[in-house]
Design brief:
The protein is mainly β and about 180 residues long. It is built from two helices and eight strands.
């Protein structure tokens, strides 16, 4: 009855509503696949990836490019080792149903490189860590899956995060995430 009718109406609305990637605030969450073996050894092959964007505008259909401020995070561990990245930057993207864009930002990298047992005290461990502040880029491609009445939307987005190596570790990777826009 009512539930089936509501779901049918919602599905129809989602199919016919213009699916533009135009919501001003979005958050993204999904796995980040790490490519370089040295980063995989430190932070694992798959890390948690998260991000947030705030679009600066314009919201005019004649201008299909939107600028935004961004926050990126990725992090993971491999045993007692850990690799994490935090970044802030700016990006630009198309505002069509299938959208593409690129960004640049400042990234803070941190790696717990290794743990070892001290030969003179076998029950003690010592950790070495490395940190760096780097300029990195990201390139993304996504598609809005559906729009919810009121302006929210769900998209699927792939983001390649390219950052320089630090202390011999290349933290670049590919994030595959769900992007909630509201």
């Amino acid at each position: 009855g009512f539930v089936t009718g509501s779901l049918s109406a919602f599905s129809l609305l989602a199919c016919v509503a213009p699916a533009f990637a135009d919501s001003p605030l979005s958050v993204q969450l999904g796995p980040t696949l790490i490519f370089a073996q040295n980063a995989r050894d430190t932070g694992g092959a798959t890390q948690l990836g998260a991000g947030a964007n705030y679009d600066l505008g314009p919201r005019v259909p004649l201008v299909p490019i939107r600028g935004s401020v961004t926050f990126d995070y990725s992090g993971g561990g491999n045993g007692s080792q850990h690799l994490s990245t935090y970044g802030f930057g700016i990006a630009g993207r198309l505002t069509t149903p299938v959208y593409a864009g690129a960004g640049i930002g400042v990234y803070w990298e941190n790696a717990t490189l290794c743990c070892f047992i001290a030969p003179t005290a076998p029950n003690l461990t010592s950790k070495e860590s490395a940190t760096a502040t780097v300029i990195g880029t990201n390139y993304f491609l996504g598609e809005k899956l559906f729009t919810v009445p009121g302006g929210s939307a769900l998209s699927l987005q792939a983001t390649y995060q390219q950052r320089p190596s630090f202390d011999g570790i290349d933290p670049s990777g590919l994030n595959l995430g769900l992007r909630l826009q509201f």
